[in-house]
Amino acid sequence: MILRTISDFLESHAPLSYQESYDNCGLLVGSYDSEIQSAIVCLDVTEEILDEAIGSGAELIIAHHPLIFSGLKRLTGSNYIQRIVEKAIRHQIAIYAIHTNLDNTLVSGVNSRFAQQLGLLASSPLRADNSPQNVDIPKGIGIIGTLPEPLTPGDFLAYVKIRMNTNCIRYTPAVADTISKVAICGGSGSFLLQDAIRLQVDAFITGDFKYHDFFDGPGNIMILDIGHYESEQFTMDLIVSLISEKFSNFAVRKTKHISNPIKYF
Fold first, then answer.
1. How far is 108 from 112, CA to CA, in rounded Å?
2. Entry pTM
3. Which CATH architecture has domain 3-99?
4. What phi-psi label fits residue 8: left (phi over 0), alpha (psi between -120 and 50 degrees) or beta?
């Protein structure tokens, strides 16, 4: 299979025009015309994951987070990004990123997979995007949905911890006696807090909340910071399933390595 076949499919699902201005989605290393037979899917491209691709014979790494956000001025091996790029080129392994364009794709995107993992029902966008776009690919960020049944705050925390496979939740106290209406955003979603408050949800789940951001929670909303990696980890399963369903004869799997650099004690 030609790499361009995979990239065209992914971009038909999550158009590159949907990425944020700061982002760097698409093919980062390699040639669109290269022949590929297998791919590894990951959240972050690490040296261990590149070695995994080399060892397994995969010609393509599909990552959620771009390895390169800004231009490289030199390749001297002085940091992990330079080492990965140089080694990937040497071993003819392509690296492709599908980041905020997949975040901003409402159907079968990062947040719809997040909502599915939580079992949320009757979902709608947390922040809809009504700008001119491909009408066949709804655009927006975040999801609002309802739990299968209302839960006490304590039961809700336990439910999220199990469903999202996380060892640690930073949170603010609940406002309501029960939690039913929930807003979510995979990754760094604190910028959507006021949207969640305005829409009167019971709880907002995301990652990367700063200390002072939590002060907006008490009296307004229950905030749950479950971690950046933890909120996006099921994106790998989403990408694998999208490609497998479209190309049944193409070998694609998620990495065996956990790229989360944060550990909990």
1. 6
2. 0.97
3. 3-Layer(aba) Sandwich (3.40)
4. alpha
